[in-house]
Amino acid sequence: MPKLKEIAPILEAAKQAAIDYYRLTGKPLGITGEIGEYLAAKHLGLELADARTPGFDAYGPDKRLVQVKSRAIPEKKRLTGQRLGSIRLEHEWDTVVLVLMNELFEPYAMYEAGREPIEAALTKPGSKARNERGALAITKFISIGKKVWTSGE
What we know:
Blueprint (H helix, E strand, L loop, with lengths): L3 H22 L6 H13 L2 E2 L9 E2 L5 E8 L22 E7 L5 E8 H9 L4 H6 L4 H7 L1 E5 L3
Parallel strand pairs: 3-4
Antiparallel strand pairs: 1-2, 2-3, 4-5, 5-6
């Protein structure tokens, strides 16, 4: 896997292209996940896993398997109603890190939750999106996780 310092200049160029593309078209370019993985690794001391590893994106310093979820949410939008991408319980992973970024892909907070509380939330009866697709609301994830990084730290 390439080192973070090798990835940084490429992602900075891609980030600017995504910002310009969104301003021009109103559509996202689709690189939020890659940027979030890079930012989580950089700020939390994670080592990125090989691309397309089922279930997780990085290794923690303690060798835990970390799945990274990322959302770029414009400052004027609320977190209410926003959902994470699918969290698949059939794959191997220990924790999930949520990277929240503004519309310029600048991170402002990261939260982490362990497998047990996430499984409990995903299997709780009541929501088709949550139960069948593994899509937790961001506000729910924040409530069961803990803040592990904020900008300015």
